[in-house]
Write a structure and sequence with these properties.
It is built from four helices and 18 strands. By secondary structure, it is an alpha+beta fold. The strands form five sheets. The protein has an eight-stranded mixed β-sheet with strand order 6-5-9-3-2-12-15-14, with helices on one face. A three-stranded antiparallel β-sheet has the order 4-8-7. Strands 10-18-13 form a three-stranded antiparallel β-sheet, with no helix packed on it.
């Protein structure tokens, strides 16, 4: 396998922009917008239907815009994704014990070689594990990015760590009135796609990434999260897990009990 060149790419991410707003209590809003250009039939097949997921128990999800663009300039034809082409469904039962994970499938109309697929969506995080804390991160792997950026605006200070072995990324911090602002941008096109290999594995040290947090280190987080974890462990199991435990306890041998929980 090798890193793909422009001629090998099934699709290209022309533009990818992420906007994150962090409230003082740690709740946040994640707004993402991107445009993908389809280069060949492989790209048409792989990107014509896109999937996202969210936790409906603690998050609110909405699609702001989704469309296929064919042609360029003033003559471009825009085909909005009909509501009937957006499906939201529950993910497997094992994912529902503590959360309610849902999958969103978006089927784009009129996708051709040369089409541009545009998507803009928002996820509102309505719960936090630790009040006053937020963290996030991004890896630039698995796509060819012509241009990408991440902007964080926060009511509490933000700290970040950039891992950028080849100098793809730039960063800058500033204050906007009472808000703390961080901007991460690509300086030039970034390719982390391979050829002749399905689902390749990249060594972490080779992948450009950024880690962001409202704490400068993890020691305070650990001190404050231990009591939270202990209080949760002391509560009764959710019904889905309690049912599994009850079934396992009916088995005679320890091995059978363990297998019943798997």
């Amino acid at each position: 396998a090798k890193l793909a060149g422009l001629g090998d790419l099934p699709y290209v991410v022309e533009f990818d922009s992420t906007r994150i707003f962090v409230k003082k209590d740690g709740r946040s809003t994640f707004l993402r917008e991107n445009t993908i250009r389809i280069n060949n039939d492989q790209g048409r097949e792989s990107q014509g239907v896109q999937s996202l997921s969210f936790n409906s128990r603690s998050q609110k999800f909405r699609i702001i815009d989704a469309a296929t663009l064919n042609g360029t300039g003033k003559t471009a034809v825009r085909s909005a994704v009909p509501k009937a082409n957006i499906e939201i469904k529950e993910v497997g039962e094992m994912n529902q014990a503590f959360d309610s994970i849902k999958q969103v499938s978006i089927s784009y109309p009129n996708v051709q070689v040369g089409s541009r697929l545009h998507l803009k969506y928002e996820i509102e995080n309505r719960e936090v594990a630790l009040k006053g804390f937020w963290s996030g991160g991004l890896q630039f792997a698995g796509d060819f990015f012509e241009k990408a950026n991440v902007t964080v605006r926060s009511e509490i200070p933000v700290f970040f760590r950039l891992h950028d072995p080849k100098g793809f990324l730039s960063s800058r911090q500033s204050r906007q009135g009472s808000l703390y602002k961080l901007v991460i941008e690509t300086k030039y096109p970034l390719s982390m796609l391979t050829t002749q290999e399905y689902q390749p594995f990249f060594m972490p040290e080779r992948v450009p990434s950024v880690s962001i947090s409202t704490l400068p280190d993890w020691s305070r987080y650990a001190r404050e999260m231990i009591p939270v974890h202990e209080s949760l462990l002391a509560k009764p199991l959710p019904k889905a897990l309690a049912d599994i435990k009850a079934q396992a306890m009916n088995e005679k041998s320890p091995i059978d009990r363990i297998q019943k929980t798997m």
